[in-house]
Amino acid sequence: MAIPQSVLLSVLVWPMVRPVLAATKPCDYERLVLDTIRPVTDRLTATRRDVIRARQSLGAQVRLASEPTGRIARRFCRREFFEEALLLRRLVGPLRDGEAADPLKHWEELTHHVEQQPDASPPKRRRRRRRRGGRRQRERALRKAEAQSKEEACPNPSASSSAPPPRTEPTASPPNSSSDGSPPAST
């Protein structure tokens, strides 16, 4: 069995992470782990996927230090990084020195039990909302909104009031009149 790169990375940084995890109270362990291992992972040529999996596996060590109980523990066993976290736990040992009972055996039993049971219910897919109108309608609405925001941001300085000037309709000239306003010539 080959050991995944993320587990090897976790073993490499374990001496730095272990005291941090053992001394802190419950909080966002993954953020704490990431802040601790960032100087090392920035210098290594590890892939982002391996760094993320290492962070998740290291953060899971706090949960693996306690007994598995209830539905939350069964759901935790189904997480994609769980096998790597369990392998890391086997390699590095307990989180705190002097732990009386190591719950690793209980976690392995629970994993075996969970693997035998199919999922009770498949995950529900969220329905996507139907968009109305085509791309042109959305673009037109976007341009209209941009134009309105520009008008609000930069009002016309020539306008003396906030009301727009009244529209004047062009007047139609009588059929036999000239455009200069003089009476029509008689023949």
SSE order and pairing:
Layout: H1 5-23, H2 29-43, H3 48-64, H4 70-77, H5 82-92, H6 104-116, H7 135-153
Helix pairs in contact: 1-2, 1-3, 1-5, 2-3, 3-5
Molecular structure report:
α1 crosses α2. The protein has 187 residues and is an all-alpha fold. The mean pLDDT is 77. The chain has a domain of 112 residues. 55% of the residues lie in helices and 0% in strands. The chain contains seven helices and no strands. The termini are far apart.
Question: DSSP helix count?
Answer: 7
The helix fraction, in percent, is 40-55%
Largest sheet: none
Rg, alpha carbons: 35 Å
> Overall pLDDT, averaged?
77
Which of globular, elongated, flat, extended, rod-shaped describes the shape? elongated
Keywords, please?
187 residues; single chain; 7 helices; mainly alpha
Overview in brief:
The chain is an all-alpha fold. Helix content is 55%, strand content 0%. The model has no long low-confidence stretch (mean pLDDT 77).
